[in-house]
Design brief:
The chain is built from 14 helices and 20 strands. By secondary structure, it is an alpha/beta fold. Helix 9 links the parallel strand 10 and strand 11. It is elongated and about 80 Å long.
Length: 498
Amino acid sequence: MEIRILTGELAKAEADGLIVPILEGTPRLEGDIAAIDRDLDGAVSRLVETGDVKGKPDEVTVLHSLGKIPATWVAIIGMGKLQDVTKDRVRRAVAIAGRALRQRKAKNIATSAPGFSGVTPEEAAQAITEGSLLGLYAFRKHITKEPDFTKIKQLTVLDADTARLPVIARGYEKGRVLAEATNLARDMVNEPGNYMTPTRMAEVATELARDYRLEVNVLEREQMRELGMGALLGVSQGSAQPPKLIVLSYKGSDSGQLDIALVGKAITFDSGGISLKSAEGMGDMKGDMAGGAAVIAAMGGIARFKPKVNVVGIVPATENMPSGTAQRPGDIVTAMNGKTIEIISTDAEGRLTLADALSYANKLNAKAIIDVATLTGACRIALGDVTSGVFGNNQEWIDRVLAAATAAGERLWQMPMFDEYKEQIKSDVADMKNTGGRFGGAITAAQFLAEFAGETPWVHIDIAGPGMLEKERGYLVKGGTGVSVRTLVSLVLAVDKT
Ligand code: BES
Ligand code: MN
Ligand code: ZN
């Protein structure tokens, strides 16, 4: 979709459809909606009077203009009360109204970035861009028949005041990079396991590196062996697909210091291994590489923003399959940092791959680490598909991640890391076990990872819930959501400013 920013009035816009926001509980229509109401002979104000249009969040009403204005359709989208309007509400509004217009076969749509009490025109433009690119996303690569909706080719953002266009353009640029990075992560997550293999993930990372001048290094099994990555190799040994440790580097400063390591879980298919999962819903485990996809996509976004920091993305990509060569429950493996792990369940594989990836981040002397993983069903049970769990060993670093998520419009919730939980992963035959039982499963998984983060400030985000959705929600569509890409990029940009 092409997005243009022009001087003009929405009521006069040449487009198939208009997206026009309406506030809840305002006695008089103002701005674009008032002008459109006048041209439509008071149709909007009559709908408001009768209570058919209330302006409640997410309420969308599509009117036919009957030729009274150049645009055919007017999608009136509720914004709620003025004081409650946030960037996220703008994102949702544009997504919902955009989909309503797409359903009516609109190809060109137009809107404006007015700015509300709590949202500046720059922020509104960013949110409009994100809302449209994210909300109109569809993964149709493997569908040969035509969809029952059109592909919206063009979105025009109009403002009557030419002086405001540069500000709007700035918001647009930011939103575009964030949304395109998120959609890249979604593409990877939605791709099935027979396409999105570890090898293919490495190719995507390599293509991205070429496009945005990142350095890429893909470590093969032999190099993992030399590095002593016994935990990662244990997970991959049952699979016919070779594992890849993908390392993307962005250099924005000459300090010689690695400021941040982003680490992402990338199990391209998690069958559970010998501790085989039950058949129901197993196909969703094609999305068990969502953390790795988020890290790769975020690295592309970071390279486009060019912050003055050094960042490395580390993605241990492998399948988790059962076979005659697969790892067994009861096996003991040694991770790169020398610690030994008793395998209780081969289905607790993500933490094993991350153990070596975190050790690798420490070998690179990262000043701070953040990992993203579809790590535990327990986290999904605890927080649903709305919120990701946050864990860490350093409150200052955790707070920065929480702030970045809030700025990006993603929901995070900090979970406890009390020492008592560590009891659950003590082993009689090795340094630790890879599972701590059913109770507090997301926490004991994080405590396991903490052993490999060591003293480095580290944050872990468990995206098992929000990584994939069963049903669309606002600008998040069904399937892969690309969650945490916006948080990771915002975090790096915020670190750049300090
Ligand atoms: N990839 C799963 C976690 C998961 C479950 C992600 C549902 C998204 C949706 C992970 O590898 C796993 O299997 N975890 C086990 C851990 C258990 C064996 C300790 C789980 O959560 O059941
Ligand atoms: Mn698993
Ligand atoms: Zn998994």
